[in-house]
Amino acid sequence: MAVGIAGCAWLPETVERPVSHALATPTDTALGQLVLARKTHASTQADSGFHLLDNAAQALAARLALADAAQQTLDIQSYAIHADDTTDRLLDALRRAAARGVRLRILLDDFNTSGKDAQVLQLAWVPGIELRLLNPLPGSRNSMVMRVLSSLPNAARLQRRMHNKIFVADNAIAIAGGRNLGATYFGQGSDNNFVDLDVLAAGGVVRELSQSFDQFWNSPLAYPAQSLVTLADLNALRGPDPGPPRALQMTPAPAAPPPGNALGQALTRRAAQDHAVVDLASLPLVWAPSVVLADKPSKLEASQEETQEAGNTLVDGLLQLLSRARQDVLIVSAYFVPGPRMMSQLASIKKRGVRIRVLTNSLAANDAPATHLGYARYRKELLAMGVELYEMRAEQPGRLTFFGSSTSRASLHSKLLVIDGRLLVVGSMNLDPRSRLQNTEVALLILSPELARAATQKIEPTLADGAYKVSLNDGQLRWHGPADAGLETSDIEPDASLGRRLLLLLMAPFAPDEML
What is the value of pTM for the model shown? Predict the structure, then answer.
């Protein structure tokens, strides 16, 4: 059946992809001038400033504000943009930016652009907005199931996804981290919300992020949305008599933001709407040496064997950094599947007396429970070598905060490393074979004891109050809840249903690490 479906699917062979690049002179914009003034006032040799966006409302407010303040360009790269009320607000801000003459380039992985989420593609028909889909899948966008079935004859292509996430305004200020665009990533989900962390970056390092974006944008793997789907197709997905396409309902264009304190004014306005205190004019920026690590789009065309043999992926670079740790390592990874190579490196640095703490999802909190298999098969060995394991609790006390975000039910989505209390890494990558061998990823490496300490201080309350600490006693795993939470020590995966536990036991023999 899959072969038959695939026979009806196609990708265009000849596609026009006009080459374009990031803004060459960001200092000509109000945002560029603001960053230059902040750097001059800070009297620093470092050319990049950073602020941790640890609050979900703040993270959304900052993106809305950048969209409002941009004068010339907005470049957005994301694995997923979900169609919901939260992203409607963001897409409205993007339409307003396009209406006042800002050039928008949106680069989206094609995996999630089906069903309701396909309506986001209508942005491609808004004047001033270009939208390209990376590594597209053939077949209908009616449902995810049909798209996966259409791609089964080329399962390797299906597995390789662009997982990068950046949001760049005027090539002067950017946001990078783990968040996709959708309600559950900004604390607006009705049930479960993802716990995440971004970094707002200003200055020179933004140009490095833009260079990575340009590589993907101009790649032959990036297809203009109009070459893959028509507006009539999208309207048909909306059902009978859908009314005017939302993406074409243009709101009046506001006047361009004034020079000088443009971003500060925009952020202040957004702060009032989102109950988040974000004003870049007075927002503390930590100026520090930094570098961008980013996979190249060619990684999506190489086989896993070729990628593994080359050993030059973003995750490979992070493993090299881990091997140089001298005092302590803090790993936060929503999906943590160490694999033999990382296990060897962790054992090596443990022998040197390095403290290693890992925060990942518990089985109950994991939104991709199959991935838990890869982590679970290394859990006893990790504990035996002295690694401290913490698993995020799915059910949370209503007043407990995670990285500044209050939630009652949570799933960890953050991806960061803190090494020796001085190097902070925040990005889109998980420490698992998928991020290493299949997906493309991007990360910011910031050499700053101040930021490393701030990130650690935001995470440690979660280790103490929002996670189970796992131990190994006479070969038996045990989960210990916070002492004041009234949770008893458990010898089975806590909070997970019997059905979920049994399903994983059945799947375990048939799920190698590389497939998780």
Answer: 0.91
